[in-house]
Amino acid sequence: MGQGRSTAQYRNMGSLLHDVNVSTKKATFSMGCFWAPDSLFGVQKGVIRTRVGYAGGVMENPTYRRISDHTESIDIDYDPNEITYNELLNLFWAYHDPTARTSKQYTSLIMYHDEEQKELAEKTLKEEEKKKSSYIVTKVIPAKEFYDAEDYHQKYRLQQHTSLLEAVGLNRGSKLKTSHLAARLNGYIVGFGGVAQFDSEINQIGIR
Ligand code: MHO
């Protein structure tokens, strides 16, 4: 894990923070049940916050029970100085099976927010097509309305650890969609982040 020379603003307070004010870009993906990518992306260096929801369709106000033509999706706020869209795409491709024939609820989508993301997404899709013999179902489409999922789906793995959730001042509320700390813990708790990563983040803020 490379350490930049400048200490990122969000690691300067002696702890990982709930609220982080850096300018971010968005990345939106669908890659199966949204609980797993919430953990996967939440723990990546440069990912500030995540939320899970429903996107890709046209029906207004979908819910888990009435998902209609939408797909379970993850919405990521990332600091482009710390992680690139290409790195996020690499994780997208590596952590699900884009050849799986699934229902619309669990299909594979890349929802781009600008032309640069579109081009990178399409480029990596072509590369995957060369690597795989089966048909890739992934669609690259423009990001439109993202409907947040119900609170009980946000940081789902962390919510199973009620005492930890409470110990860091969180509960099942809207803060689970905005807290940087919640995103991190939700990844660590299932083993996506390792000791080396945590130590490097802690070293940057100067506590051991
Ligand atoms: N209940 C299913 C899917 C949940 S996900 C939010 C499972 O445990 O895999 O669709």
TrEMBL record:
Task: Give the Enzyme Commission number.
Answer: 1.8.4.11
Top-level lineage group: Eukaryota
- Which stretches make up the Peptide methionine sulphoxide reductase MsrA domain? 26-162
Question: Which Gene Ontology molecular-function terms are recorded?
Answer: peptide-methionine (S)-S-oxide reductase activity
Keywords from UniProt, A to Z, are: Oxidoreductase
The chain positions of domain Selenoprotein methionine sulfoxide reductase A helical read 174-203
Gene3D superfamilies (UniProt xref): Peptide methionine sulphoxide reductase MsrA
Q: Which NCBIfam families match?
A: msrA
The family classification in the record reads: Belongs to the MsrA Met sulfoxide reductase family.
PANTHER family noted in UniProt:
PEPTIDE METHIONINE SULFOXIDE REDUCTASE (PTHR43774), PEPTIDE METHIONINE SULFOXIDE REDUCTASE MSRA 2 (PTHR43774:SF1)
* UniProt name for this protein: peptide-methionine (S)-S-oxide reductase
Q: Which organism is it from?
A: Diploptera punctata (Pacific beetle cockroach)
